[in-house]
Amino acid sequence: MASFNTGVFISYAHIHNRPLPPKEKGWVSQFHATLDALLSMRFGQTARIWRDDKLRGNDIFAGEIVGQFSQTAVLVSILTPRYLTSDWCT
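Request: output the structure for the sequence above.
Response:
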């Protein structure tokens, strides 16, 4: 992954990252943290994982997200009903 700025791009619908207990992280955030730890241990260096964790709803984000595509080695899409009906996700 040396020629890429980002190793993994996580694509998901934000509605599915809502925390069940309000003060905890959503499951996508937990997945991200676990994947980061596992990849970092496996490769012996900090994993480079990108996901949009701050943009919401009608934010203008196309440029920021699309700009990541050519710089990323692996795309992980979290397929859910909402993801599959989202114009942006698909």
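The beta strands are 6-11, 49-51, 72-77.
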